[in-house]
Amino acid sequence: MMPIEIRLLAYAVVLGFVHIMAASLAGLKARGGLAWAAGNRETQPAVTGAAARLERASKNFFETFPLFAALVLAAAAIDRHNTAVVLGAHLYVWARLAYLPIYGLGLPVVRTPVWGVAMVGIGFVFVGLFTKIGPFVR
């Protein structure tokens, strides 16, 4: 049976794909459509509005995802399946899922705390590497 934190890691990979597609599709029209996309992209015109926000959200996701993935994989490698790891994985994935539309819609007051929840999730997974607490201990 697959541990929930590994399943959440797989869901985060899907979310990464969604980030790429959302940012790409939102900026496509502003940059010249399919003709630009099919070209060699010598220039990359700037985008504004929701397209620019989705690009920044995608960049932000890919700044944090490697940390999350490395910690979850390390926890799995040493069979550290505990409350902190599971809770941290949930916090990260659900906060990052909420972050994309929040940032895309331009809700700055909400965006920062949601980002913070994802960072706390990474912290929980890190702490879980060094502890054997909770009902999920093997």
From TrEMBL:
Keyword hit for Secreted: no
Transmembrane intervals: 61-78, 85-106, 112-131
Record key words, sorted: Membrane, Transmembrane, Transmembrane helix
Entry-linked InterPro entries: MAPEG-like_dom_sf, Membr-assoc_MAPEG
Gene3D superfamilies xrefs: Membrane associated eicosanoid/glutathione metabolism-like domain (1.20.120.550)
Coiled-coil residues: none
Highest taxon in the source lineage: Bacteria
Main localisation: membrane
Compartment annotation: Membrane
Family annotation (PANTHER family): BLR7753 PROTEIN (PTHR35371:SF1), INNER MEMBRANE PROTEIN (PTHR35371)
Protein name: MAPEG family protein
